[in-house]
Amino acid sequence: MMTKKVKSISEIVLGKNPFVTDKWAEWSASHLQPKYLVRRFDDNMGNRFYFFTPEKEVIIASGITTITDKVLPNEETKNINKWKEDNPNWRHLLNISSEYGTLEHIVHGDIMFKKGIDKTKLDAMQKIITDYGGSHNMPSKDVLSFLRFQEDYNLRPLLIEAQLVWQDPVTGEWIAMTIDLLAQMTIPVKTKKSIEDGVYQRGVNKGKPRFKEVIIESTIEKTLIVDFKGNFFSKDSKGFYLSNKIQLQAAKLAVEQNFPDIIVDDIYNYAPNNWRTTPSYTLHKWDLTDLDWEKFWSHWKTAQLYEYNKPKGKMLVTEGFKDSNDFKFFTYKEYVEQVLLKSAKVENINRIS
Predict the structure, then answer these.
(1) How would residue 143 be classed by pLDDT, with cut points 50, 70 and 90?
(2) Quick check: 193 and 202 in contact, CB under 8 A?
(3) What share of the chain in percent tops pLDDT 90?
(4) Which three-class secondary structure state does DSSP give residue 182?
(5) Residues 6+ away with beta carbon under 8 Å from 159
(6) DSSP 3-state assignment of 150?
(7) Are the C-beta atoms of residues 33 and 353 closer than 8 Å to each other?
(8) Fewer CB atoms inside 10 A, N or C side of the chain?
(9) DSSP-derived 3-state class of residue 286
(10) CA-CA distance, 11 to 346, in Å (whole number)?
(11) Model pLDDT, residue 34
């Protein structure tokens, strides 16, 4: 009779669980390789951080969404807190919204690569929304909206669901993030042009050329970052906030630092609409003026002063509840070093997936 091998703590903790992503991007163009292979940990219980190992040193970094949650303007904080007060089960709602969004992002990738729509994913999205009490048509409408977006802009992905870090070149501090989409896109452009339209037949301008304004339609190729907002709870609400803009500004910095040959032309938020007769969506472009960047640096300075960019949680770990003393509290860094990095799943963390 064979003796069953007792699992190590890292096998127990990680096993097949989804807490640690097993690749740096859901998809990336073959020529793109980031400076650092970044992993994200999220146990859906409030422990969320990114980690990576430059020069074999473990670095723990907060995600940009965590940082913006702490430095938001008061008005935006009030809106978020009001929603939480109105929904005592807000953590559960955020989790199901996240599940729906994950499936939706996978479907977006299938559309961009012309793989067709996987009905099992659509069915899973439908179950989530109907269990929540929403319309069973929402997943199909969301897919059709994205199909229209793909057709309108001819998306050519460079990165999908990519985990990157940006290092402040002055302070050496880090911001981590997951970028929904970096893509080359064909942008429609409309410009006004005056063209000659005959001559004046009478009046003070008789005999002089007459002009009229016409709209010239053309296209331009750009590289864009797009952050998807599913509007899971309200399709009629298109609230894009300053936090969304800050997150996209950080994403632009990270892309250009990791891939020096890429310049991000513009940043956008995308959300499907609650359409009734024709698939539609909202594509919100954010300005990037000098003043916009001054505001970004101001928020980032605040985050560093209060160390919002440095996760400080602790993990309770036990190897099997042998007795009441069989536990340890690990800092996030200790947890990565003593648990996550000992797992076969992430032991080759510096190797690109």
Answers:
(1) very high
(2) no
(3) 42
(4) strand
(5) 25, 27, 28, 29, 32, 179, 181, 182, 183, 255
(6) helix
(7) no
(8) N
(9) strand
(10) 11
(11) 95
Q: Is the pLDDT of residue 20 over 80?
A: no
Cα dist. 353→38, 141, 261, 341 in Å?
Answer: 11, 34, 21, 16
The first and second tokens of residue 6, run together, are 């007792």
Q: Residue 345 burial (CB < 10 Å; 0-12/13-18/19+)? A: buried
* Average pLDDT of every residue of the chain: 83
pLDDT given at position 7: 37
What is the Cα–Cα distance from 223 to 263, expressed in whole angstroms? Answer: 7
- Enumerate residues 6+ apart whose C-beta is below 8 A from 137: none
CB 236 within 8 A of CB 274: yes
**Distance (Å, whole) CA 339 – CA 334:** 8
Q: Name the amino acid, one letter, at 130.
A: T
Report how far residue 178's alpha carbon sits from residue 235's, in angstroms, rounded to the nearest whole number.
23
Helix axes 64-71, 242-258, angle to 10 degrees: 140
110: burial class by Cβ within 10 Å (0-12, 13-18, 19+)? Answer: middle
CB contact at 8 A, 140 and 107: no
Residues 6+ apart with CB under 8 A from 68: 243, 246, 247, 299
CA distance linking residue 186 with residue 189, whole number of Å: 9
CA 179 to CA 25: how far, in whole Å? Answer: 9
